[in-house]
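Entry 14. Ran structure prediction on the chain below.
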Amino acid sequence: MITEPSIGGVVMDDAEIKRHVDDIARFVLSRPVGLIVLVLGPLLWVWTGLMYSSVTWQPLMVALVGSILLIVLFVVMTRRSASRVVRAQYPVGSRVVAEVDGDVLCTRTALSRGETSFALLAGVLIVGGTVVLKRKGGSFVAVLPAAAFSETDLGALQAAFAG
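Output, C-alpha coordinates:
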Protein backbone atom coordinates (compact mmCIF):
# COMPACT_ATOMS: atom_id res chain seq x y z
CA MET A 1 0.00 0.00 0.00
CA ILE A 2 1.27 3.45 -0.89
CA THR A 3 1.67 5.77 2.07
CA GLU A 4 -0.82 8.58 2.26
CA PRO A 5 0.33 12.17 1.86
CA SER A 6 0.40 14.10 5.11
CA ILE A 7 -1.10 17.42 3.97
CA GLY A 8 -3.71 18.69 1.53
CA GLY A 9 -6.50 16.93 -0.23
CA VAL A 10 -9.57 15.44 1.37
CA VAL A 11 -10.11 12.46 3.64
CA MET A 12 -12.94 10.35 2.26
CA ASP A 13 -15.54 9.75 4.94
CA ASP A 14 -19.09 8.46 4.43
CA ALA A 15 -20.51 11.96 3.91
CA GLU A 16 -17.88 12.87 1.29
CA ILE A 17 -18.42 9.54 -0.51
CA LYS A 18 -22.18 10.13 -0.56
CA ARG A 19 -21.70 13.63 -2.02
CA HIS A 20 -19.34 12.21 -4.65
CA VAL A 21 -21.82 9.43 -5.56
CA ASP A 22 -24.67 11.97 -5.81
CA ASP A 23 -22.61 14.17 -8.14
CA ILE A 24 -21.58 11.26 -10.36
CA ALA A 25 -25.16 9.97 -10.58
CA ARG A 26 -26.40 13.49 -11.46
CA PHE A 27 -23.69 13.73 -14.13
CA VAL A 28 -24.53 10.35 -15.68
CA LEU A 29 -28.27 10.98 -15.63
CA SER A 30 -27.83 14.35 -17.34
CA ARG A 31 -25.82 12.97 -20.28
CA PRO A 32 -27.67 12.38 -23.58
CA VAL A 33 -27.97 8.61 -23.11
CA GLY A 34 -29.32 9.08 -19.59
CA LEU A 35 -31.84 11.64 -20.78
CA ILE A 36 -32.98 9.34 -23.58
CA VAL A 37 -33.59 6.51 -21.13
CA LEU A 38 -35.32 8.83 -18.64
CA VAL A 39 -37.49 10.74 -21.12
CA LEU A 40 -37.85 8.97 -24.43
CA GLY A 41 -38.23 5.45 -23.00
CA PRO A 42 -41.23 6.30 -20.81
CA LEU A 43 -42.78 8.43 -23.56
CA LEU A 44 -42.61 5.49 -25.99
CA TRP A 45 -44.18 3.20 -23.38
CA VAL A 46 -47.04 5.62 -22.77
CA TRP A 47 -47.55 6.21 -26.51
CA THR A 48 -47.70 2.44 -27.07
CA GLY A 49 -50.19 2.14 -24.20
CA LEU A 50 -52.34 4.85 -25.78
CA MET A 51 -52.27 3.05 -29.13
CA TYR A 52 -53.60 -0.17 -27.59
CA SER A 53 -56.04 1.39 -25.13
CA SER A 54 -58.85 2.24 -27.53
CA VAL A 55 -61.07 -0.50 -26.06
CA THR A 56 -59.83 -0.68 -22.46
CA TRP A 57 -57.63 1.42 -20.15
CA GLN A 58 -55.44 -1.48 -18.99
CA PRO A 59 -52.65 -1.11 -21.60
CA LEU A 60 -52.29 2.55 -20.70
CA MET A 61 -52.06 1.77 -16.98
CA VAL A 62 -49.47 -0.97 -17.64
CA ALA A 63 -47.48 1.51 -19.74
CA LEU A 64 -47.64 4.21 -17.05
CA VAL A 65 -46.54 1.83 -14.28
CA GLY A 66 -43.85 0.36 -16.52
CA SER A 67 -42.47 3.77 -17.42
CA ILE A 68 -42.33 4.80 -13.75
CA LEU A 69 -40.56 1.55 -12.90
CA LEU A 70 -38.11 2.13 -15.77
CA ILE A 71 -37.19 5.56 -14.41
CA VAL A 72 -36.83 4.34 -10.82
CA LEU A 73 -34.81 1.28 -11.85
CA PHE A 74 -32.45 3.32 -14.03
CA VAL A 75 -31.81 5.87 -11.27
CA VAL A 76 -31.25 3.17 -8.62
CA MET A 77 -28.90 1.19 -10.88
CA THR A 78 -26.94 4.33 -11.74
CA ARG A 79 -26.53 5.25 -8.06
CA ARG A 80 -25.51 1.71 -7.09
CA SER A 81 -22.96 1.54 -9.86
CA ALA A 82 -21.52 4.93 -8.92
CA SER A 83 -21.41 3.94 -5.26
CA ARG A 84 -19.58 0.71 -6.03
CA VAL A 85 -16.99 2.51 -8.15
CA VAL A 86 -16.42 5.34 -5.66
CA ARG A 87 -16.13 3.01 -2.66
CA ALA A 88 -13.64 0.83 -4.53
CA GLN A 89 -11.59 3.79 -5.72
CA TYR A 90 -11.72 5.80 -2.49
CA PRO A 91 -12.01 3.60 0.62
CA VAL A 92 -13.40 5.24 3.74
CA GLY A 93 -10.61 7.00 5.62
CA SER A 94 -8.30 7.34 2.63
CA ARG A 95 -6.86 10.70 1.58
CA VAL A 96 -7.23 11.97 -1.99
CA VAL A 97 -4.87 14.70 -3.20
CA ALA A 98 -4.98 16.33 -6.64
CA GLU A 99 -2.43 18.94 -7.71
CA VAL A 100 -1.66 20.80 -10.91
CA ASP A 101 2.03 20.92 -11.79
CA GLY A 102 2.47 22.99 -14.95
CA ASP A 103 0.49 21.11 -17.58
CA VAL A 104 0.22 17.85 -15.63
CA LEU A 105 -2.47 16.76 -13.18
CA CYS A 106 -0.99 14.69 -10.33
CA THR A 107 -3.31 12.55 -8.22
CA ARG A 108 -2.57 10.53 -5.12
CA THR A 109 -4.86 8.16 -3.29
CA ALA A 110 -4.30 5.35 -0.82
CA LEU A 111 -4.40 2.90 -3.73
CA SER A 112 -2.60 4.71 -6.54
CA ARG A 113 -0.60 7.63 -7.85
CA GLY A 114 -1.07 9.08 -11.28
CA GLU A 115 -0.03 11.81 -13.64
CA THR A 116 -2.15 12.96 -16.54
CA SER A 117 -0.89 15.39 -19.13
CA PHE A 118 -3.31 18.12 -20.14
CA ALA A 119 -2.45 17.23 -23.75
CA LEU A 120 -4.49 14.02 -23.27
CA LEU A 121 -7.53 15.86 -21.95
CA ALA A 122 -10.23 17.62 -23.93
CA GLY A 123 -11.86 19.42 -21.04
CA VAL A 124 -12.96 19.59 -17.44
CA LEU A 125 -16.45 19.83 -15.95
CA ILE A 126 -17.35 20.57 -12.37
CA VAL A 127 -20.57 18.91 -11.23
CA GLY A 128 -21.40 19.88 -7.67
CA GLY A 129 -18.33 18.91 -5.68
CA THR A 130 -16.89 16.62 -8.34
CA VAL A 131 -14.36 17.34 -11.08
CA VAL A 132 -14.95 15.33 -14.27
CA LEU A 133 -12.05 15.12 -16.72
CA LYS A 134 -12.85 14.41 -20.36
CA ARG A 135 -10.30 12.59 -22.47
CA LYS A 136 -9.71 13.55 -26.09
CA GLY A 137 -11.73 11.21 -28.22
CA GLY A 138 -14.96 11.58 -26.30
CA SER A 139 -15.01 9.36 -23.22
CA PHE A 140 -14.72 10.60 -19.66
CA VAL A 141 -11.53 9.46 -18.01
CA ALA A 142 -11.74 10.41 -14.33
CA VAL A 143 -13.90 11.84 -11.61
CA LEU A 144 -12.22 13.39 -8.61
CA PRO A 145 -13.59 15.12 -5.53
CA ALA A 146 -13.22 18.88 -5.97
CA ALA A 147 -12.20 19.07 -2.30
CA ALA A 148 -9.02 17.15 -3.23
CA PHE A 149 -7.81 20.25 -5.09
CA SER A 150 -6.56 23.44 -3.51
CA GLU A 151 -8.34 26.59 -4.71
CA THR A 152 -5.27 27.53 -6.76
CA ASP A 153 -4.98 24.11 -8.40
CA LEU A 154 -8.68 23.99 -9.22
CA GLY A 155 -8.46 27.47 -10.74
CA ALA A 156 -5.39 26.46 -12.76
CA LEU A 157 -7.18 23.36 -14.03
CA GLN A 158 -10.23 25.36 -15.09
CA ALA A 159 -8.06 28.06 -16.69
CA ALA A 160 -6.17 25.44 -18.71
CA PHE A 161 -9.39 24.39 -20.45
CA ALA A 162 -11.25 27.70 -20.56
CA GLY A 163 -12.12 28.90 -24.02
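The first strand starts at residue 10 and ends at 11. Will compare against last week's run tomorrow.
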